[in-house]
Design a protein that fits this description.
Length: about 500
């Protein structure tokens, strides 16, 4: 019976696939893809510089332009995340994604023709537009999914976005190897690969309905929402879901969609905002990107030959993908709080051990292999806990009127964090060496304590119940005052 119950949602699963391909998959592929054509793009920049100015570009300028090409993705994504507060509200979730795919297709065309036009500025602009596509796509993808899923599947569904990120990372690493597209003549096409998922999503999304919750709560289109739900879930008994939406609509009746300023200043969402900012959006600061960065150095020290590095990197990507997939089956059973809280705690501890091992790596010949093991450990823990939950939790925290602006804030923290980590991390490593991990350890331990002590569990609760749980925190002192007066009265009597 259970299996049949889950099979009736097959159209919802198809929607998940379509959203994933043009949504978070693009993020994964953009992050990992850029590493392999680095050499070719840099020599192309050098070549165009020669043709223009008649002199070779000096190394530091070349390095700066290159790190900007890598980092400009996060700036574009920030712009996209800012628009994710207005576009999906004005045009609906579906149209926003269709517009978004056009942006990615334009970026892909810029990449393809950059070599013919002899312009590395086109690569920069293309990366910026890809970033915009990723920033807007990721937020709308999560909104669309969370608003189309039944509550028993909500954690699993929003987590598929992390699975697609992992899948995108692995795909980017695989097509980037020399045997496939990592060659001198193929690089413009490698950079343009993201155009294909965009075209796919653009065509396929036309067959799917708009997000039911958006239709009901924002547009007041009860009938359209019911039709969309019946089509997606293939269920006629929708009373519970419609009641829940009705409740949420009444609680936000007459409220306009909130602005970012409202979210930042309102007392009634203070703890939701903290939960969004510290453990979820700050996931950049738990050091996972640093690990990817450091991995190659550690592999080198263990005596892994240069030409084998790519395959180990694919191994790391695959490990993350497998553990995130595991997490998606655990999240509605174990709950968000435990997975994320203990995940961060274990990450912090493992990175402490790694820092110590990196400091004493010359004492013994087997230590570098232990370090490889530790890197894989951290990535496993990251995939099982923080990585997935940081995607699923934001969809649980806010009611409809607050959600778009909340995603703007989490996007801003996330992408600016990524930009900073991307631009500064090289310099930090030069300054601190392996001790740079201690910054991340501090962050992980802090997040873990925050999750375990304060944040209520959201698994299997309706949006309104979650709000009530958080109100206990938001109005904590006032509740205490109320109780005190009650006690005082009772003792007097």
């Amino acid at each position: 019976l259970e299996t049949r119950m889950y099979l009736q949602y097959w159209r919802l699963y198809l929607l998940t696939l379509v959203l994933g391909i043009g949504g978070s998959f693009q993020y994964g592929i953009q992050v990992s893809l850029i590493a392999s054509p680095a050499v070719h793009v840099q020599s192309f920049m050098n070549h165009t510089w020669m043709l223009r100015y008649g002199a070779p570009v000096d190394d530091s300028t070349n390095q700066l332009i290159w790190s900007f090409i890598v980092a400009v993705l996060s700036l574009g994504a920030w712009a996209g995340a800012i628009h994710s507060g207005s576009l999906p509200v004005r045009y609906g979730r579906k149209k926003a994604l269709l517009i978004n795919n056009v942006v990615a297709i334009v970026a892909a065309l810029l990449m393809v023709f950059s070599r013919m036009a002899r312009s590395f500025e086109m690569i920069l602009l293309g990366r910026f537009l890809y970033g915009y596509n990723v920033g807007l796509g990721l937020s709308v993808h999560l909104m669309y999914l969370g608003e189309s899923s039944p509550k028993k599947l909500r954690g699993f569904m929003t987590l598929t976005s992390s699975i697609f990120i992992g899948f995108g990372k692995v795909m980017g690493q695989i097509i980037g190897i020399n045997e496939i597209m990592g060659t001198e003549e193929m690089w413009p096409y490698l950079l343009a690969v993201s155009g294909i998922p965009a075209i796919l999503q653009f065509v396929l999304l036309l067959f799917f309905p708009e997000a039911p919750r958006y239709l009901y709560i924002d547009k007041g289109d009860t009938e359209g929402s019911q039709k969309a739900l019946q089509w997606l879930w293939q269920e006629d008994n929708l009373k519970l879901e419609l009641d829940d939406m009705q409740k949420e609509r009444q609680s936000t009746q007459g409220e306009k969609a909130k602005t970012v300023k409202d979210v930042l200043t309102s007392r009634c969402v203070r703890w939701q905002l903290l939960t969004l900012a510290i453990p979820c959006a700050g996931v950049q600061f738990c050091g996972i990107n640093a690990l990817y960065f450091y991995a190659f150095d550690i592999f080198r020290e263990s005596g892994v030959p240069e030409d084998q590095m790519h395959y180990l990197a694919i191994g790391i990507g695959a490990t993350e993908l497998i553990t995130i997939t595991l997490c998606s089956f655990l999240i509605d059973r174990a709950g968000r709080k435990k997975l994320m809280g203990y995940g961060y705690l274990l990450m912090g501890v493992t990175m402490c051990v790694l820092t110590v091992m990196l400091s004493i790596k010359d004492l013994n010949s087997w230590i570098p292999y232990v370090n490889i093991g530790l890197i894989f450990c951290v990535i496993c823990i990251y995939g099982l806990g923080p990585s997935g939950v940081s995607m699923a939790l934001p969809a649980d925290l806010f009611l409809q009127a607050w959600r778009p602006s909340a995603f703007v804030i989490s996007g801003t923290i996330n992408w600016l964090g990524m930009f900073l980590v991307g631009m500064l991390f090289g310099y930090v490593v030069e300054g601190l060496g392996q001790f740079c991990f201690l910054i991340f350890v501090a962050y992980s331990i802090f997040s873990s304590a925050f999750m375990l002590y304060f944040v209520p569990e959201t698994k299997g609760k309706t949006m309104v119940e979650i709000m009530e749980d958080f109100n206990k925190l938001n109005y904590k002192n006032r509740a205490a005052d109320v109780e005190k007066t009650d006690v005082a009265l009772a003792t007097k009597l």
